[in-house]
Amino acid sequence: MASKLLRAVVLGPPGSGKGTVCERIAKSFGLKHLSSGQFLRENIAANSDIGLLAKQHLEKGLLVPDHVITRLMMTELEKIQTQPWLLDGFPRTLGQAESLDRICELDLVISLNIPFETLKDRLSARWIHPASGRVYNMEFNPPQIHGIDDITGEPLIQREDDKPEAVAARLRKYKDAAKPVMELYKNRGILHSFSGTETNKIWPYVYTLVSNKIPPNQAEEAN
Q: According to the model, what pLDDT value does residue 220 have?
């Protein structure tokens, strides 16, 4: 069990490898990994009010509105007030960051800076199962049968905003929303940025940074 109630965030554009980095941090340091994307997928699959509202926006390639994602994440954070945690995909906007400020003080913010061409290649290889939101990457995480969801056997689709011609606009949209968030955390002295094209090469530097904040787990699995 981690010895300090660390409050950390990993920021990065779509396709930057946030999920992989967060999983490694959570396992190595015993932090609870809270993925806004995972919670959204679960709510979409359950046809909850939040899930239905989020689905309408995601299918159009739009960001989920601040009030929807904030409500979702605050509900999850209330459940783990006595645990150290790591946020993945939240906050994405200044409004979300300000809402987070009202309930906690962050200790560490990690930003992943990945070149545009790398992001474009990763996103263009991404396909989803629309009913559940499950994501596949044809290079790194392909389905067992090409074009078919592993669990339901239903066909996969490529979102309009994952197609090469739409990726540039999507990344610009993310950058515009994230810029004031980055500035906020930079001014507080808690933002640490890592650049590269391969998660495996970035990871040792991230590990060293987090090790300076909290001791790593001795066990192989995070508690």
A: 39
